[in-house]
Amino acid sequence: MAAAILALAAPTVAAPAIDRQAPAVVAVANPGGEVLPCRPAADRPRPVVLIHGTMDDATAWDVLYPKLIAAGYCAYALTYGAGGGFLPLGGVAPVDRSATEIAAFIDQVLAVTGADRVELVGHSQGGLIAEYYAKNLGGAAKVHSEILLAPTTHGTDLLGLVGLLDGVPAVRDVIDTAVLPTFCAACADQEVGSNFIRALNSGPIAQPNVRYAVLATRDDMTNTPAGAASFIEEPGVVNQFVQDLRPGYVTHKDMPRDPVVNQWILEQLGSA
C-alpha cells in the first residue's frame, strides 16, 4: 500500500485559524498540537477539523482552508501520526493511535472555541479516522457531520494486490507485520481484511445524529475498488462520485485540492 500512496507526501506545517474577535490576529494549530482561540460566527457555530490522509500532512488543505475562512468558519488542522527515521511523514502511525491523537485534538478545538460539536472533513485515512472516532471511540456526541473524501472505509484491495497476497498468507503476514510497520503501520491497517477494518465494519458505521457525506473518484488507483471501498451504504448517507458533479480526471491525491471537490465540501457544510 505504501508505494501506491507515496505521492501524498508534503512538508509538515499546520493550518491557522483566525480569531473572529480580532481578525488581524492569527491563531495556529501548530505541529505540536497547540490550538489557539477562534470565536465561531453565529451562522457558523461549529469549527471545522481537517484530517489529512496517509503519508501527508496539514498542508493537504492549503487550498480548502482559505475558502473555509472566507466562508466564515473556524478551521483547524494538524499533522498527526508522524513517523520517524527515514520517512518523517504524517499519517503513518497505527491508525488507532492516530485516531486517539485526533480525539485529543478535537477536545482542544472544542475547548478553545466553546462549541459543543465539530464538523469533520477527512481525506483517505483521515476519513477512516473520522468514522472510527465517532463509532469506536465514542465521539459521535461531539460530531455534527462527517464530510469524507475517498475514505478507506472498507479497506483498499490495492487494485487486487491484497487478494493475490491472500493466496499466500505467509507472505502477506510478513508484509503486514514485519515490513510495513517499519515505515507505515497505517498502510497495513487500511488493507481490506485488516483487524482495524474489521473492527470498524462490525455493525453499522453511521452513528445516530451524525450526518455523513462521502465523495469518491472513479479514477482512484489507491483506495480500490473506487467507490465501493469508501461508500457507507446505510440510510441517510450521501454517497457520490466527483465525476457525477463534473466529468473529469481526479486522482486520489488530487481530491483535497480539486476545485469541484472543495465546492462540494462547502455545500455539504452549508446543508449540514
From TrEMBL:
Asked if the Swiss-Prot or TrEMBL record annotates the protein with the keyword Hydrolase, the reply is yes
Q: Does the keyword Hydrolase apply?
A: yes
Query: Sorted alphabetically, which SUPFAM superfamilies does this protein's record hold?
Result: alpha/beta-Hydrolases
GO biological process terms, alphabetically, are: lipid catabolic process
Q: Which UniProt keywords apply?
A: Hydrolase
GO terms assigned for molecular function: lipase activity
Q: Which InterPro entries match?
A: AB_hydrolase_fold, Lipase_EstA/Esterase_EstB
On the tree of life, the source organism's domain of life is Bacteria
Q: What is this protein called?
A: Alpha/beta fold hydrolase
